[in-house]
Amino acid sequence: MTDTSMSRDQRLVLTIAVLASFVTFLDGSVINVALPAISEEFRSGLTVQQWVVDAYLITLGTLILLAGSLSDAFGRMLVLKVGLYGFAATSIAIALAPTAEILIIVRGLQGVAGALLVPSSLALIISSFRGVAQAKAIGQWTGWTSAAFLAGPLLGGLFVDYLSWRLVFAINIIPIAITLYLMVKLGQKNERPEGAGIDWWGAVLGIVGLGGPVFALIEQANYGWGSPVIYLPFAIGLVSLAAFVLRQRTAKHPMLPLGLFAVRNFSVGNIATALVYGALSLGGFLVVVYLQEVAGFSATLAGLAFLPITIGNIALSSWFGGLSGKFGPRLFMGFGPIIGGLGYLLMLNMGEQVNYWTQVLPGVLLFAVGLSATVAPLTAAILGSIPENQSGIGSAINNAVSRIAGLISIALVGVIIGSELTVDSFHRGLLVTAALLIAGGIVSWIGIRNPEKVPEPIA
User: Please, where are the H alpha helices in 187-199?
Assistant: First the structure.
């Protein structure tokens, strides 16, 4: 995980940052394979499955930027510790949840704790590394956290089949305890910068702006679009999102520096991120649940279905990252998502009876190559387009975009497939997933420019 050329403190910092963020990314994907078991235990349907995923993503995605402000105002070490204790407490509460309603509520609280971990971890890296070493450390952080996201379904499957879906969350205590111990060993004092502020109104507008539409999209199957229970939250959410953008233009301490989006690669890269990570969440959700509920796979086998993606990402990301550094990110961000989309199109031959080797694996392998070709160049294009001293907020924005994209895509599941997962509705979901990936490739090819010089600081 760490480089021998690093100092002792730098190795500790990188390990702490990876472990602290690892649990948030793991819990974002591990849940998919546990959804059928949760539905069976609580005798619930698709709507509850969507809420179990999105309750976490709503708070995580909307609060990541606020958490960056909290880290600036109160010190990254303090915010990191609060996030770790909060994540541990909510993980135990989820493992003990007696009803689906309580599970959903606590998942939302877990997202709050998770939001505190990601920007604080990045801030810790940025403050401890400089120059090329900083870029390399961020790359290692990205690689390990991406591996956590992709390995989640396999780990979840093993726990569901051989232990309990509840222990998937209780196991978080182990990496959290190790992280807290390493923080004590590091002995770094908490520092509170002067003049930092928090945009509380922006945070509220952001939460309402995302929460309202997501609620409407998930619950529209139960109430219908003509119900005020649906159209009022949807309308209030859209107004709040517009107010959030206006607020960021005038706030003294904005959560979202809009000036960054004037940078071409930053703005285009984040559009590509939304498309690619929306597809990643949607496709992962649909395939893992379909393999269990329709094709009759065990949770472990359903989780194993995506294992080649994890292996491919670990094995190929660094290689593609090196090629991207040599030839520029545009080529890889263009063809990578399109190859991934073709992989999902190959899965369209799946029916009620599924042969993994002929109907799933070829598509998964193609998607694995496409995703591996995309991730490192995407990160490099976005962070490489802005000055080094803004890489922390740039990375936080990109993380927020990817989580929000996943949140919206899961909220749209009911709109895409209806109230029941069948062969036909599953195929519709695969087509939408492929379309998002291909669109991400097209947007990148048209919009991304290979860098020519080091960017100047942005006012």
Answer: none
Q: How many residues does the chain have?
A: 459
Separation CA 91–CA 110 (nearest Å): 7
DSSP for 41-57 reads: HHT--HHHHHHHHHHHH
> How confident is the model at residue 459, as a pLDDT?
43
Q: How far apart are the C-alpha atoms of 141 and 150, rounded to whole Å?
A: 14
In this structure, what token pair is assigned to residue 122? 């990045």
Q: From its phi and psi, is residue 253 left (phi > 0), alpha (psi between -120 and 50) or beta?
A: beta
| Segment 302-321 mean pLDDT | 80
Q: Is-contact 281 402, C-beta < 8 A?
A: no
- Of residues 64, 442, 434, the one with CA closest to residue 280: 434
Q: What is the pLDDT of residues 57-71, one digit of tens each?
A: 888 877 877 777 777
Tell me the pTM: 0.79
> Who contacts 240 (Cβ-Cβ below 8 Å, separation ≥6)?
205, 206, 208, 209, 212
Distance CA(351)–CA(427), nearest Å, equals 9
Task: Tell me the C-alpha distance between 337 and 165, whole Å.
Answer: 32
- Quick check: 1 pLDDT over 60? no
450: enclosing H helix or E strand: none
Inter-residue long-range contacts of 95-102, CB under 8 Å, 24+ positions, other chains counted: 95/166, 95/167, 95/169, 95/170, 96/166, 97/166, 99/42, 100/38, 100/42, 100/44, 100/48, 100/52
Q: How high is the pLDDT of residue 454?
A: 46
Q: How far apart are CA 66 and CA 115, in angstroms?
A: 8
Burial class (CB in 10 A: 0-12, 13-18, 19+), 42: middle
Query: Can you give the pLDDT at residue 103?
Result: 93
Please say if the pLDDT value at position 342 is more than 90.
Answer: yes
> Would you say 172 and 49 are in contact if contact means Cβ atoms under 8 Å apart?
no
By the 10 Å C-beta count (0-12 exposed, 13-18 middle, 19+ buried), 275 is classed as: buried
Q: Report how far residue 153's alpha carbon sits from residue 304's, in angstroms, rounded to the nearest whole number.
A: 7
Residue 194, token pair as written in the block: 């002067």
Instruction: Kindly give the interhelix angle for 131-162 and 100-128, rounded to the nearest 10 degrees.
Output: 160
Q: How confident is the model at residue 191 (pLDDT cuts 50, 70, 90)?
A: low
d(CA 86, CA 82): 6
The residue ranking higher by pLDDT, 13 or 275, is 275
What's the CA gap between 63 and 78, in Å, rounded? 17
Do 409 and 282 touch, CB atoms closer than 8 A?
A: yes
Distance of alpha carbon 108 from the chain centroid: 15
What is the Rg, in whole angstroms, of the alpha carbon atoms belonging to the chain? 21
Residue 437 · residue 341 · CB < 8 Å? yes
